[in-house]
From TrEMBL:
Signal peptide: none annotated. It comes from Actinotalea fermentans. This is FAD-linked oxidase. Keywords: FAD, Flavoprotein, Oxidoreductase. One of its GO terms (molecular function) is FAD binding.
Amino acid sequence: MTSTETAGTPRPTGTTPVADELRAAVAGTVLTPADETYDAVRAVKLGGIDTRPAVVVRPQTEDDVAAALAVARRHGLPVAVRSGGHSSVGYGSVDDGVVIDVRDLADVEVDAQTRTAWVGAGATAGQVSVAAAEHGLAIGFGDTGSVGVAGITLGGGVGYLSRAQGLTIDNLLAADVVLADGRTVRADATSHPDLFWALRGGGGNFGVVTRLQYRLHPVPEVTGGMLFLPATAEVVAGLVTAMQAAPEELGVIANVMPCPPMPFVPAEHHGSLVVMALVCFAGTADDAAAALAPIRALATPLADLLKPMTYPEMFPPEDPSYRPVAVSRTMFLDHVDTELAARALDGLAQADGMRALQLRALGGAIARVPADATAYAHRSAPLMANVAAFVNTDDRARKLAWIEGMLALLDQGVPGAYVNFLGDEGPERVRAAYPGGTWDRLRAVKAEYDPDNVFARNQNVPPA
């Protein structure tokens, strides 16, 4: 019995005109609310999202994708495209519509000689990392192994290796895309270059990506793990300075947050604000020690769990049943000094429950790409900040107001937003993700490839 059933209540029938038409048209699986696996398949990563699509299609081929689009359009149904299901606002699903769930398109083909890989859109970052590591290679996809490669790539892709290798999109060589009219095209630097430009940061606005080709990099070993430091203004500001000055091979995600009750952190710090730094250095252990020395010198660590490992070990196993309910907002920063850090710590101390300020250093290889080379245009932004809080139904508005207050006290007038971290914030914030001429250029590409805005279940760019 699923969570949505009650004793004595039969499941609805799975025979509908749309479902029957899809089952006749596709080789993949077609699920309706009548199917036992429907509730498990429709669930997305975050909790608090309970969309109920009319049909979920699990395509096996590009032809399946085209057929699903044709049926949805013929019946006037909204379409959502889902890979890993990590959209913070549930854009991988849609009420009473058709979900094209690409998780069965998950093949990973690594060519060690050319250091490239063709990857199905439904593969996860963890799966690709394991396959590439067998050849001593890697590509950065963020910091979570269960994220779908298509979703994170199309928005940009910021992760542990970004300062050394660039964003995920900077290592994207080609993409196979099923368009709204059912055609399949390959977008790369010479074929459909306008679409290729838009796919690199423009989100899922232009079609259903089914395969992606990536450039891989040698990463035979890393030093990684968690480093816990006391949360003082001096430590927070010093850490950010050290992150920016460090060799580009060092990636750090600094989370200022209440300390969870972890056994390796002294109990007296549990519940108090700490800095939990997620660290990855792509290189030898000796080089890692040298790069980390300035960070370890900031204060005596509360816990130092950094050790040599393979890159896939940076993505520990996740509990698939863990579906936190959270709200978050993102912004770019110019700098973090002790004054700003003190304000941030004071703001964090005023809240309750699990909440965090996350800080990432950008720059490096990210900044060496011209701003107009991809749809992600924030190449000169030095720092990215995210403020997040876990919420319950009765405190969501209060927690969101606290987050907005935190953004106000951190605001340095740096414009823009990273589209992959946007929530349900309205069209003005989507517009802010694409500054200058980027917005108009994206709208022109949208008008060419999706003039009817079939792909609207996203941070939407309307056609010109």
